[in-house]
Design goal:
eight-stranded mixed β-sheet; globular; Aminopeptidase
Length: 185
């Protein structure tokens, strides 16, 4: 699904562009995936796992999502750099098509500038435009208080826990929390 380009002003006064991914974003997204994986333990990959992401693979992903009727991806561009991305995808089965999964991540240098809120507002708008959807779903890793605060601000609530879902290199086990946001019409 292609989403209309949206410009907005960050808290620091810079302009940001939120839009569907384009081929010109592939290198920036590959860099973003690698860097973001090393900035926090809350991303579900380590930097060395990013080798599986290729130019061709990202192009195929962008093409598939942009042509899809049941998912959308947005990239946020600041000063010509991919600052982050988000994605929404809804299920297509008759019993599950009322549910949409969402995911979001930002480079650390772009935290606290309003990008996460703006991306969530757009994903909520997309979800509300689909008459079949009644809830959005996501997961976050234990101790990720920043993400939890954003999700709660956007109307999500915790509905469950997956104990010991994440195992860090040092052996630390972390829980994963499930959240939903009901669609308001």
């Amino acid at each position: 699904m292609i989403i209309k380009d949206t410009e907005f002003v960050l808290k620091d006064g810079r302009k940001a562009l939120l839009r569907s991914p384009k081929d010109e974003d592939i290198r920036g997204v590959l860099d973003y995936l690698y860097v973001s994986a090393g900035e926090t333990e809350f991303i579900l990959r380590y930097p060395e796992e990013c080798g599986k992401y290729t130019y061709e693979g990202e192009k195929a992903l962008f093409d598939r999502i942009n042509a899809s009727e049941n998912e959308a991806m947005l990239v946020c561009i600041v000063d010509g750099k991919v600052a982050g991305n988000c994605q929404i995808a809804w299920k297509t089965g008759l019993k599950t098509r009322h549910r949409a999964s969402v995911a979001i991540a930002l480079l650390k240098e772009f935290w606290n500038l309003g990008i996460g809120t703006r991306m969530f507002e757009e994903m909520i708008r997309i979800a509300e435009a689909n008459e079949n959807l009644i809830q959005m779903e996501l997961e976050f890793v234990e101790d990720n208080t920043r993400a939890r605060a954003l999700y709660e601000k956007m109307g999500f609530r915790i509905t469950g826990i997956n104990p010991n879902a994440i195992r860090l290199r040092d052996g630390t086990l972390l829980n994963e929390y499930c959240m939903i946001r009901e669609i308001r019409r």
